[in-house]
Amino acid sequence: MSHGDQLSKLPTNFRIIGRTQTAPYAAIAHEEKLLFGIQFHPEVTHTPRGKEIIGNFVKRICECKTDWTMACYKLGVGDPFIVESYRKKKVRTI
């Protein structure tokens, strides 16, 4: 997705919950389901609290766990208890 991309038509059963001068459908919500859409770049430095927005989405909405680290990477399907660093494994693979 680039900065110029945007919806040209509101999807069925969605309503507008946020807009800007250049994005008429900047935030949308489904009328009945817990579905939302937003169009902006939370990862850029000039988005206030962008990291917090991404974190809330990942942890609260998607319910992802945050216990994975680059240092805890399983070697393969058959070796669930053998662990090496992600970097070492990728260097070896390359």
SSE diagram, text form:
Blueprint: E1 14-18, E2 27-30, E3 36-38, H1 50-61, E4 73-76, E5 79-84, H2 86-93
Antiparallel strand pairs: 1-2, 2-3, 4-5
Question: In words, what does this structure look like?
Answer:
Strand 2 and strand 3 form a beta hairpin. By secondary structure, the chain is α+β, with helices and mostly antiparallel strands. It is elongated and about 50 Å long. It has two helices and five strands; from the N terminus they run E-E-E-H-E-E-H. The mean pLDDT is 80. The strands form two sheets. It has a three-stranded antiparallel β-sheet with strand order 1-2-3, with no helix packed on it. Strands 4-5 form a two-stranded antiparallel sheet. It has two domains: 14-61, no CATH class; 68-94, no CATH class. The protein has helices at 50-61, 86-93, and strands at residues 14-18, 27-30, 36-38, 73-76, 79-84.
